[in-house]
Amino acid sequence: MNHSLKVKIEEVTGCIHKTNVLDEQGWTSEVRRVYTGDRSYLLKSSYKGKYRTWLKEEAQVLKKLTGNTVISVPEYYGLIEEKDGDHLIMSFEDGMSLTAALSKAASETERKSLIRSFGRFLHEFHDQEPIDFFRSEGDWLEGQLLKAQHYAENGQCDGSLTLLENLKTDRPSPVKQTIIHGDCTTDNVMVIDGVVQLFIDVAGMTVGDPRYDESLAIRKFMNNTEYVTAFYDGYTRYKVTKKEFQYFDEGLYEFF
Ligand SMILES: Nc1ncnc2c1ncn2[C@@H]1O[C@H](COP(=O)(O)OP(=O)(O)O)[C@@H](O)[C@H]1O
Ligand SMILES: [Mg+2]
């Protein structure tokens, strides 16, 4: 880490004793644990085009959620925007992603229990009344299709313009919008003390279609009936159809 960045971080955290690059990295960023005298922080840095935009959106979400007690996310401490990259400082949370927890789990019973807790956590989240900050942002799917178009036209995603046309003409019939995470894979929820209890990577958190979260939540274990059943033991509000799952997971998600 260069000296000027270190100084800017220390303005937020106080004197840094050491930093560690985490074993578990994401897809769009570099994550480090920053230790000060009495605690530690998570430093998330992004260096490329759309990932920098997402990092800034994540900072906005975390900042607006400061002090809220209903949505479980890390605490926001600061955003440092530099020429070559942006750096988000948040609380370090002692846990691991659900993806990591599932691969470390010692038994099928433990894996199912983790997945059930994920279902329950997402159920409670979707059941909340949208808080003021997330209200009135227009039609979520319309907005996502516009973003998808931009990424596809600029070669910034896997999805093709042909797929996009299909998604535009064949939309699923609307359901009640809820608060959503917006990238709700097993990578982006954290397990603490054996249960899923924290969202991370929250750039896409807004009011939108809960079926998107649900589809991304189950995509990793879609072909394991017992795991899917465990998820729906916890998530009882709705079950996506195969067609809805495909629209969101094999369709829309290709653009993000
Ligand atoms: N607040 C946090 N506290 C502790 N670890 C975190 C925190 N945020 C992220 N991580 C770790 O960093 C990894 C990548 O974070 P994530 O925000 O998902 O990055 P990306 O956007 O690159 O996918 C996560 O899997 C998790 O292990
Ligand atoms: Mg992530």
Write the layout of secondary structure elements.
Blueprint: H1 3-13, E1 16-21, E2 30-36, E3 40-46, H2 49-64, E4 76-81, E5 86-91, E6 96-97, H3 98-104, H4 108-126, H5 140-153, H6 161-169, E7 178-180, E8 189-192, E9 195-199, E10 206-208, H7 210-218, H8 225-234, H9 242-251
Antiparallel strand pairs: 1-2, 2-3, 3-5, 4-5, 6-8, 7-10, 8-9
The structure holds adenosine-5'-diphosphate (ADP) and magnesium ion.
Question: What would you call the quaternary organization?
Answer: single chain
Can you tell me the CATH topology of the largest domain?
Aminoglycoside 3'-phosphotransferase, Chain: A, domain 2
β-sheet strand percentage = 15-25%
In CATH, the architecture of the largest domain is Alpha-Beta Complex
User: Strand order, biggest sheet?
Assistant: 1-2-3-5-4
CATH class of the largest domain: Alpha Beta
User: What count of domains describes the coordinates?
Assistant: 2
Q: What best-fitting shape do the alpha-carbon axes yield?
A: globular
InterPro entries: AGP_Transferase, Aminoglycoside_PTrfase, Kinase-like_dom_sf
EC number: 2.7.1.-
GO molecular function: transferase activity
Protein name: Aminoglycoside phosphotransferase family protein
Report on the structure:
It comes from Rossellomorea oryzaecorticis. This is Aminoglycoside phosphotransferase family protein. Keywords: Transferase. Pfam families: APH. The chain is an alpha+beta fold and 256 residues long. The protein folds into 2 domains: 3-91, Phosphorylase Kinase, domain 1 (2-Layer Sandwich); 96-255, Alpha-Beta Complex (Aminoglycoside 3'-phosphotransferase, Chain: A, domain 2). The protein has 9 helices and 10 strands. The model has no long low-confidence stretch (mean pLDDT 95). The structure holds adenosine-5'-diphosphate (ADP) and magnesium ion (MG).
